[in-house]
From TrEMBL:
<keyword id="KW-0963">Cytoplasm</keyword>
<dbReference type="Pfam" id="PF00462">
    <property type="entry name" value="Glutaredoxin"/>
</dbReference>
<dbReference type="InterPro" id="IPR036249">
    <property type="entry name" value="Thioredoxin-like_sf"/>
</dbReference>
<feature type="domain" description="Glutaredoxin">
    <location>
        <begin position="13"/>
        <end position="75"/>
    </location>
</feature>
<protein>
    <submittedName>
        <fullName>Glutaredoxin</fullName>
    </submittedName>
</protein>
<keyword id="KW-0676">Redox-active center</keyword>
<dbReference type="InterPro" id="IPR014025">
    <property type="entry name" value="Glutaredoxin_subgr"/>
</dbReference>
<dbReference type="GO" id="GO:0005737">
    <property type="term" value="C:cytoplasm"/>
</dbReference>
<comment type="similarity">
    <text>Belongs to the glutaredoxin family. CC-type subfamily.</text>
</comment>
<dbReference type="InterPro" id="IPR002109">
    <property type="entry name" value="Glutaredoxin"/>
</dbReference>
<dbReference type="InterPro" id="IPR011905">
    <property type="entry name" value="GlrX-like_pln_2"/>
</dbReference>
């Protein structure tokens, strides 16, 4: 959990992902299209990926990926991120975290 917290607060936007996950690809594309330079951690390619996955599950991420942190705070998975995007709150979260300017 400590490593997840440290990584999650290391950049304005952090995405825990798996390279083979289609929803992860969708979320990464969304942030890229918005102009966010997110830190993407592919946990299936990390030697300690299983530990990260267990820590994400303990934090309430179910499924464990994608798990999106903005400004060090857990936003959630694909459903939560898309809901924020559709209701217009995602850009404000990103602006407040310093991930985008406008």
């Amino acid at each position: 959990m400590e490593r997840v917290a440290r990584l999650a607060s290391s950049k304005a936007v952090v995405i825990f992902s798996k390279s083979t996950c289609c929803m992860c690809t969708t979320i990464k594309s969304l942030f890229s299209d918005i102009g966010v330079n997110a830190l993407v951690l592919e946990i299936d390619q990390d030697p300690k990926g299983r530990e990260l996955e267990r820590a994400l599950l303990r934090k309430g991420c179910n499924p464990s990926v994608p798990a999106v942190f903005i400004g060090g705070e857990l936003i959630g998975g694909a459903n939560e991120v898309m809901a924020c995007h559709l209701n217009g709150s995602l850009r404000l979260l990103l602006k407040n975290a310093g991930a985008i300017w406008l």
